[in-house]
């Protein structure tokens, strides 16, 4: 583990630290929103330890708090985390060979740790970036959730502080750069239209599932670009 920290340079360590700080603040908002929405104090903490996937955790709390079916909330979270399958293939080499290492590394497999790892060219730096980011984010996220959960017991309305907008803002910041790619616009547009069209008529949670299905359909409907004749 010591070699991992020695491999990081100041610039990379600084970038990881800033992301961890931002993630901690989002964790505070999640904990506060969950508890102020009526969930028991222990639930957001337990979910953060066992699930450790911000998007799915926010999705579960949002769907159930709006009156949606918990099973629909779980299914929505599983679909949202389906992206971890290609993540595993992309960073499988940094997890190590021992089953314990691969199990722990899989639990730390989130968007940020994968992004930092794939940005490195050398194998040793990839491994160091992945583990440093994953461990740092796991610690900061859970600390933030604990702080937010206790704060949520004293906050009757999180909307006053705008905490409910924190994670959607982060997700929007992550999505917008990908829309520069023309190939990504059609699936995203289909998903948005499906969600907007079905939200007034369906129970909470189902529009999210249908929107994800719309994204998949949009990807499948794309025709491959014709190859130039040689």
TrEMBL record:
Bilayer-spanning residue ranges: 12-35, 128-154, 160-176, 188-221
The keyword Secreted is assigned to this record: no
Main location: membrane
One GO process term, biological-process aspect: L-valine transmembrane transport
InterPro entries: Brnchd-chn_aa_trnsp_permease
Compartments where located: Cell membrane
Topology in membrane: Multi-pass membrane protein
A cellular-component GO term for this protein: plasma membrane
Pfam families: AzlC
Keyword tags: Cell membrane, Membrane, Transmembrane, Transmembrane helix, Transport
Stated family: Belongs to the AzlC family.
Protein name, UniProt field: 4-azaleucine resistance probable transporter AzlC
């Amino acid at each position: 583990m010591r070699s991992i920290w020695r491999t990081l340079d100041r610039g990379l360590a600084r970038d990881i630290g800033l992301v961890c700080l931002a993630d901690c603040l989002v964790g505070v908002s999640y904990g506060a929103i969950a508890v102020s929405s009526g969930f028991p104090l222990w639930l957001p903490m337990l979910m953060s330890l066992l699930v450790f996937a911000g998007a799915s955790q926010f999705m579960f709390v949002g769907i159930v708090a709006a009156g949606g079916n918990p099973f629909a909330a779980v299914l929505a979270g599983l679909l949202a985390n389906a992206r971890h399958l290609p993540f595993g293939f992309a960073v499988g080499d940094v997890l190590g060979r021992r089953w314990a290492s691969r199990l722990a590394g899989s639990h730390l497999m989130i968007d940020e740790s994968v992004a930092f790892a794939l940005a490195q060219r050398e194998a040793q730096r990839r491994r160091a970036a992945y583990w440093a980011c994953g461990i740092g984010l796991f610690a900061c996220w859970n600390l933030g959730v604990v702080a937010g959960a206790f704060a949520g017991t004293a906050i009757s309305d999180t909307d006053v502080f705008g905490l409910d907008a924190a994670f959607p803002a982060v997700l929007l910041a992550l999505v917008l750069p990908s829309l520069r790619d023309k190939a990504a616009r059609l699936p995203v547009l289909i998903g948005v239209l499906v969600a907007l069209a079905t939200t007034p008529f369906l129970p909470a949670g189902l529009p999210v599932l249908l929107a994800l299905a719309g994204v998949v359909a949009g990807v499948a409907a794309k025709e491959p670009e014709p190859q130039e004749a040689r």
